[in-house]
Amino acid sequence: MTAPRAPLVTAPSASEIAHAAERLEAGELVAFPTETVYGLGGDAENAQAIARIYAAKGRPANHPVIVHLSPTADPAYWVRELTPDAQRLIAAFWPGPLTLILKRAAHIPEAVSGGQDSVGLRCPSHPVAQALLEAFKGGKGGVAAPSANRFGRVSPTTAQHVREEFGDTVEVLDGGPCEVGIESTIVDLSRGFAALLRPGHVSAQQIADVLGVAPRLPDGRDATAPRASGTLKAHYAPNTPLALLGFEEIAQALALLQSGERVAVVARASRASHLANLPGIQFIAAPDNPLHYARDLYSLLRGLDRASVQRIFVERLPDGPEWAAVNDRLGRAAAAFLSDR
Fold it and tell me: For residue range 276-314, what is the model confidence (pLDDT) as tens digits?
């Protein structure tokens, strides 16, 4: 399985790709599209470039970044051992939205891993990302690339989102909107078993189908798990306060609104279309399809930050495995506004 390729509304020229690769080789930063979200990239073997990523994002130095590889790169270069499970998952899901965490090779800078002895690797399927990675060091290098936004905020899924974050301080390759729309699934293989650290487009069931055993699922009690991108309790948050509520809780919250208070309600249209005409409420009809919901989520949240609403109420979604990735992102976004976090 591979991720769908994003439709190219616009495509950088070969000279633009070459120039971006040269900037990376010079230790500078370049933002580029992947099928998941736009990444803020730097040379993964250049400690100064990695430091620039952390500084630009305001990212804690102990929070690891993911190394992106071209389809022709050798993942074994980056790790102590490319385990049989890793090889099976690579064969099944690369290029695509799956990150693997393995023990880091000694020659790879620890800065890319937040000081840990592990490293996260993935091979994106977006054609612009692949073109850039092939041009960078002849396709043999790795580009460290967390999402191209300020740390903890909503990830970007268009080039314009990146410009809203960084203005003209970062060069951006525009590859159109991201098709998947949320960050990659992260599977840890560094401890001798498979553990799902972050849900995404590649599901736990798909991983189990390849490995023949289900990965351990995150339950908050795995104290030995390596730190991984996007797994902090509060993350992916808009500027506008967001609450994740059950459908009846939304109705109760709306009944308590102050006069003149403007709020947005995000709920599946099949359940809440009657809210569209209520005064003072901006109703957003969210998709009933979990893949479409994931694709649209970050653009939706960014749009609501520009909508002059004071609060965002989001319908709590079902607990089924097909909603796991969206529930993960919404839960972390809401946690940013909880007083006990």
Answer: 667 778 889 899 999 999 999 999 999 999 998 999 999
**3-class DSSP state of 245:** strand
Query: For 242-335, which CATH superfamily applies?
Result: Threonylcarbamoyl-AMP synthase, C-terminal domain (3.40.50.11030)
**Residue whose C-alpha is closest to residue 201's, from 24, 52, 78, 321:** 321
Query: Do residues 102 and 119 touch, judged by C-beta distance below 8 A?
Result: yes
Q: How far is CA 312 from the centre of its chain?
A: 21
In contact, 158 and 176? CB cutoff 8 Å: yes
112-124: per-residue pLDDT in tens? 999 999 999 999 9
Q: What is the pLDDT of residues 44-86, one digit of tens each?
A: 999 999 999 999 999 888 889 999 999 999 999 999 999 999 9
CATH of domain 14-211: 3.90.870.10
Distance CA 180, CA 122 (A): 15
For residue 203, what are the CA distances in angstroms to 1, 40, 177, 197?
11, 25, 22, 12
- Which among 180, 127, 178 has a CA at the least distance from the CA of 12? 127
Q: Helices (H) and strands (E) in the chain — how many of each?
A: 10, 13
Domain boundaries, the chain: 14-211, 242-335
Q: CA of 293: how far to CAs of 97, 114, 287, in Å?
A: 17, 31, 5
Q: d(Cα 289, Cα 148) in Å, to the nearest integer?
A: 26
**Residue 208 three-state SS:** helix
Q: Which pTM value belongs to this model? A: 0.93
